Here is the input.
Amino acid sequence: MSWIRGVLAVLAVCVLLLTGPAGCGSSDGDGKGEPEARDSATPVGRLLDATDEEGRRYREVDGEEAPEVGIEVQPENDDSWDVRLTVRDFRFSPAGTEAKAVAGRGIAHVFLDGDLLTRLRGPEYRLAADLVPRGTHQLTVRLYADDGTVWAVDGEPVESTADITASDAEPSEATEPEGTTGPEGTTEPEGLEEQALPARTAAR
Here is the structure.
């Protein structure tokens, strides 16, 4: 009888060894599958057929969940331009971030007259003077997800644009242009004209 009990004990151990790993394997498999299932069931936004200039697709989100961006440009003494971005419901991703769309996160692309200037992972940028020829130009900032798609609302990209006007160096007294003059015959200070510009535009 004792040997029968021994055989039964060995069989019981074998059953535990066989069913234990299988059970754990099933649990692990489900655990690993759940995030993927959630991602596929509830993706961030909805991919549209529309694309930007580089062929990157728009990722549309509801207005309540959408990030926002504003741009302000100010001229500097060295003829460069100080560009500052203000964002809402958005945070910049550091270098090395996984290429995956996460709500309210990503980078900004800066365009000058439709041409890509740079990609930003922060709210500040210095625009060199030699990149802005004489005349009025449009500086646009657009928000992108980390997978390269464009954040969009109602089929339009999340972006903001500022007009900047670059002029030649100040003329000498012999070549002063005709116009309004001050009390002593000099032209009005350039700063007065600048103050009258809309908040998002700049000129020099």
In short: The CA atoms of residues 112 and 139 lie 5 Å apart. The helical segments are 2-41, 190-195. The chain has two helices and 13 strands. Residues 13-41, 171-199 have pLDDT under 50 and may be disordered.
